[in-house]
Design brief:
By secondary structure, this protein is an alpha+beta fold. The chain has two helices and four strands. It is rod-shaped. The model has no long low-confidence stretch (mean pLDDT 88).
């Protein structure tokens, strides 16, 4: 190597002209990246669980509304306490007489296959209406 080349290399090392990252910088960047990825994975799991719960509530509300429509469309005298099963959901309705004007208050409760109440709806039914 010539003297000029050696002098140039010495000046490059000492003057900050080196390019690249140190091992410590790379490890720190990887650690920060890993923490970010873990946070995103946790949010994804929470989102999936939230969507599953929302689906169960929507299904339960749909089944409850269907039962209410069935009770409303039939004869007034046929509105009595009952329970039925639909796609694993348990639909229970409780009839309570109300006065002034005479009628019925009906509460419809829908539980999912694990027994968790997902929907509770109440309506009133009057004769001749």
């Amino acid at each position: 190597m010539t003297g000029d080349t050696q002098n140039l290399l010495k000046r490059a090392k000492g003057s900050g002209l080196q390019k690249g990252f140190t091992l410590l910088e790379v490890l720190m960047a990887m650690a920060i990246f890993a923490i970010g990825i873990l946070a995103i994975a946790t949010m994804q799991i929470s989102s999936t669980n939230g969507n599953a719960t929302a689906r169960k509530v929507s299904e339960a509300s749909e089944y409850g509304q269907g039962q209410i429509e069935s009770l409303m469309s039939g004869p007034f005298a046929n509105v009595v306490n009952g329970t039925t099963q639909t796609n694993g959901y348990t639909i229970t309705w409780t009839v309570t007489p109300i006065a002034n004007p005479a009628g019925l208050s009906v509460q419809v409760v829908v539980q999912d296959p694990r027994g968790v109440t997902r929907s509770a709806l109440t309506f009133s039914r009057y004769p001749n209406i």
